[in-house]
């Protein structure tokens, strides 16, 4: 019970801290938060827009954004939720300069507009600081509000084509024989990476237990174990495996298990002298003759190499 | 599931194919004409919803030759009917949608495909959002990499594949760690009142793996074990979002994870026994009968022994299972020498229960136009409880163990804190300052209280001698005077060798492993204008790894008679009780029992590593349709903790994306990564260079072309590595000679250790194209081809293991024809070819190449 009390108290304190931080932010703010701009304009409603933009209107009626018509506030309704008030545009006979158009806008300008509504969610909240945004990739580079290929997330192309279109090396990787089943539709890029910004390098997600995203599926490797194989936790699964696919087995970074292991488990006397603290823990140099048949694969004996509860040399689970 | 070479049923398959085709055409003709005037994409309006649905039903006809196990490892598609695809979309019409605004359900792969999934998304604006998915993966892995000298030699073409020859045991034509399991994932997330001032999130996930696996165990010989796999991870989530401050969201989440590990392992004598509950699963996995031997022990009957996988090419080099294992080859099963190493019985069970409660607090805020904030902190403290129980009966020649039992409770914790905080300040419209801090701190304290009890003997056929019961009959000396204590009966004395363990061991093991990782990343971003921008930043990473290890033990040695004659005065002076031992232990003069207390001993190591990185990037958008980005990451660290952890790396990335026309997408990538750990005598260096392009043409629904090429060049050179590489017969070093640094010596004796360079390089060319054309309105034709061609050099350490096993060709051509026979019905035929070709000698493993054809016929009905 004490433990839970401590946890609840800690959470409460953090919550208060966040509230304080946000309040300070407001107090320090020089300008009010931006709402859809051009307050002088008038909101005309989506039906008015459809009189000229008929095709777009037809699509809007079946798109997820149609639900914005239920919003009470005109500034968040329909077309004008994104394009701003259309009164001046209508009065100007369709003058494009009198309404917010995404055409010709920079990535930052376009994305900032989307973030007005979508920026509050946990998924999208840090998008403007994501690697994508910092490389001038905008929301509308991947999403197409008016002509989507996939209606569910308004994607401008099929999800895999979308990612592969820029990440060509990843597309090639998934064509290799040993691969995560991404092309088969079982796993998606989104399962491991957050395209809108992530916690770790490479916009990786974390598992729910605050660990590497790999353990979300490979939960048997997560531990904790009595005897951890430290690189698994310290450097991650990618210390030994390629995450997407490989031409080698078990998606190992080397074709031979022994070469993979020996590259670390190979201590010279000079190293021992320079870093004595490493000596008492692995990696120690193996005393096995590599040419003997029974030593041809380290994991034949050291099978539970990701961690073991009963064997310091990973022979048993 | 041992697939076999199967070309015999080709005629029958063609017959099936025509029958299936006729059935599909029949289905098409029977479809109601009343709906013909409606287009499928318009859907049906009913009950306030527009409903669109499609269903693709069909089947596969497969035909493959070559190694069926490798086919199953990579492809695993087999004959049979399938629900290839299903989708349902419901959209509320104006005035409708009482229950939901949108509903989408998609499914594929049901009926036997290795992957199948159903995904659901349904929601009502501001009321709820529900997403769910179920995924199943039939995970088969039987790619044999293990050279076994008793396996059929490739030069003997007539050797019957996958069959054992009596007396030529122990062939292993399958992977000793083969896997056939089902992996099922379920995820459900419900958000109540999304986007409102307060919204609540509920979720549940389940991740279950179960099936059959093989394991190996090294205690004496290397034996196969049958390991029924059963693990499950369940997770419940509860979260709340507070949106009462404008432009600010504060969320709190509570997660509960439960992990259950119920995998166990048994010897394959038991697994293969027809009366065993595992018999069918074992046979499915291996596909062959595994040979056993017997102990020629008439009083006790025919008792089976597993001598394990014999991996030594040269007899006697390892003494496994023993010098002359065959005692009588005329009986079936063959009788073996009971002094060999062997398994008569083995089982282990180590159930484990982990609980991981996690709290997470996060927020996102844009208090004004110039400031953006976000952050989150998560805290997990897991608790694990488990028990380990292992039983062995047979013989371990090195230690003379005839039976051992190891058991004891486990208790672990893992405490993790992950914190992130980021702020962006827009100094001017073109200049932004960004700062991000990340904390990742975890510690894993663990304990294992182990008890080991051994019965020692020099033969598998001997009666068991339990020293805790029989010690007094082996040794008594009532006055404790010696020197010739009366031995009441040597038959009650354990037979020990110097390396025999204590008869009883109680050991407490403590481990602690932790890491603190703090990362600070300030960055300055600037826009030169509409056409270019850049950023420059610095990343400081402060990392500290901590290891602690401790153990304490109580060892009890009972008196026994020693090798080589196993006669004379019983004594307990061996192991930690040997004369002059460090613990000052000596046998009790009356009972002859020696007790050793090893006080808990702790070691601690702390490895601090600081790294500094220069981060820079430039993006260019010369015209709206072209985007170029260039990223640099140059890192330097002051220390390292493994040979492969870089002290320096340089990473350069260039990405080009162009859309010269709205329907053409061009992508190009150059990725260059190189890293070094060049200190003292390590000199490790590696590079991974990648160059590729992709062309996509998406011209409405009548033309889709996707064409790509990629070249990947990977190399790793690790000079001055120490390993033993000697000819087992002559003990002469025959390893790959190199020019090691002068003065570099190995940790092990220079005489026994070879100093060499571990090299691995790998060049992979990948090319692919996919073309979908609609030459006429009702017909769609598809053609595709993908190839992965890999070559490279890997250091050849093992004469039996496959040479250059990174050199392969992997072909994936395909063709497709779809005909809209009706406004709502499309008949579809597809051919996929899978060609796997290894460009090296598989040596003592069976060739793994295969060629597989998968024909898929289907009918798609949409309304």
Over all CA atoms, what is the radius of gyration of chain B?
Answer: 34 Å
What is the 3D form of chain B? globular
The structure class of chain A reads mainly alpha
The chain-level mean pLDDT of chain B equals: 86
Distance between the termini of chain B: 40 Å
**Number of DSSP strands of chain B?**
37
The helical percent of chain A reads: 25-40%
As an assembly, this protein is heterodimer
Q: Specify Rg of chain A, calculated over alpha carbons.
A: 27 Å
Report helical residue fraction of chain B: under 10%
Stretches with pLDDT under 50, minimum 5 residues of chain A: 29-38, 276-282
Count of separate DSSP helical elements of chain B: 5
Strand content of chain B: over 45%
Overall average pLDDT of chain A: 83
Q: Which strand order does the major sheet of chain A show?
A: 1-3
Unreliable stretches of chain B, pLDDT < 50, 5 or more residues?
1-10, 31-37, 154-169
Number of strands of chain A: 4
Describe the fold and architecture.
The complex is a heterodimer of chains A (317) and B (863). Chain A has 317 residues and is mainly α. Chain A contains 15 helices and four strands. Chain A has helices spanning 2-28, 46-52, 54-62, 78-83, 87-91, 107-118, 131-134, 139-142, 159-166, 168-173, 189-192, 230-234, 257-262, 269-274, 298-301, and strands spanning 178-179, 227-228, 245-246, 307-308. In chain A, the strands form two sheets. Chain A has a two-stranded antiparallel sheet with strand order 1-3. In chain A, strands 2-4 form a two-stranded antiparallel sheet. Chain B is mainly beta. Chain B contains five helices and 37 strands. Chain B has a 30-stranded antiparallel β-sheet that branches. In chain B, strand 1 (44-46) and strand 2 form a beta hairpin. Chain B is globular and about 100 Å long. At the A-B interface, helix 1, helix 6, helix 9, helix 10 and strand 2 of A face strand 4, strand 5, strand 6, strand 8 and strand 9 of B.
